[in-house]
Amino acid sequence: MKFGAIASVFVLVLSLAPPAHTARAEDLKPEQITVARVPADMPRLYVMDPALPHMVDGRVYALDARNLSLKGMMESGFAGMMAAAPDKKRVYVAASFYERLTRGARTDVIQVYDDETLKVVDEIPVPTLRAQALPYRNLFRLNSDGSMIFMQNATPATSVTVVDIASKKNFEAQGPGCYGIYPALANPLRFATLCGDGTATTYTISADRAAARLKSSDKFFDPQNDPLYTHAEAVRDGYVFLTYSGKFMRLAVDGDTVSAQASGDATEGQQGWAPGGYQPFTVDAQAGVAYLLMHDKAVEGSHKAPSVEIWAYDLGAKKLIARSPAAGLIGVTLAPSNPNVLFAIDGVANKIVRLAVDPQSRAITPAGEIKLGETAALIEAPR
What we know:
The protein is mainly beta. It has 3 domains: 35-127, Thrombin, subunit H (Beta Barrel); 129-226; 269-383, Methylamine Dehydrogenase, Chain H (7 Propeller). The protein contains 2 helices and 28 strands. It has helices at residues 2-16, 20-27; strands spanning 44-49, 58-64, 70-84, 90-98, 106-114, 120-126, 140-142, 148-154, 158-164, 170-174, 178-183, 190-195, 200-205, 212-216, 233-235, 238-242, 247-252, 259-265, 274-275, 281-284, 289-295, 309-314, 319-325, 329-335, 338-346, 351-357, 364-371, 378-380. The strands form 6 sheets. The protein has a 7-stranded antiparallel β-sheet, with no helix packed on it. The radius of gyration is 27 Å and the shape is globular.
């Protein structure tokens, strides 16, 4: 009897008590999922990775240039290209997509990303002509005022698609045998290309942006014995180019035709050394100093070899001024806002490295790194 009474009271108490799980659930607050914006004033570093092991899925990484912290990614599809807008509000990414991922109908677009949210805010359809290559800077360029995009085509016939961003209209400018795009710095309706016969072709676009007039230069380089890298660096009066053997050349592209002049030889007196990589040099335009990725035991065909050292070369004095150890690098750049810091791709260890430059001696020392991506091929610090 006593046991039965106790049991009845126990059951009654349990029935009156609120369930423990109900009390706990009421205490929980629903989590609000948010996505952080990239601060507008953050110095950006963009790293383009075509993801060669699965190259339908390329991406652009966005990093804080001050500490190499990763802030986000942007999709770049198959064999993508990128260019950051001069207004610091948009990033343009050319991408190809296939209906069945690796096969089927091909669609090419220029994806327009917001610079802070890293989200697609617009899309510009383009013809399926563009060069599906590694993301060299000079295959996808904005003009000087940011109103047009110039896109290298290779089908394999070479031409350039000219895209008016506002209207989304485009036309194809023929350019057989020419490759690489170098926008005029003072004329938004003009750009030049390098040609396989040692000349350059200048394109002047009509006012209605529907056609282009072409004019060839005289021959100024030897494509058989000492070719030019298609990579070039903009300076005040044009572009600085580099030959496979380490000779510099300046090209002025604002006129009706390209004019060129020799600007020194980085390997003079340095037998066996040559530049290498996919983005093999960068230029501090204000100081007139170029930084080159260099390797020893150079032979024909080693022009993309990873670095052993970084050299600093004074373009005005035409003089080698510093050599620093730096192994495994395949691309290098600097931010115009802070030219005493270099950023480079370590293609051997899949790292992005930050390098400090001594402004007096031009010696270079490591200043940070991040393991990133799989096959990074282009690094840009637009601000």
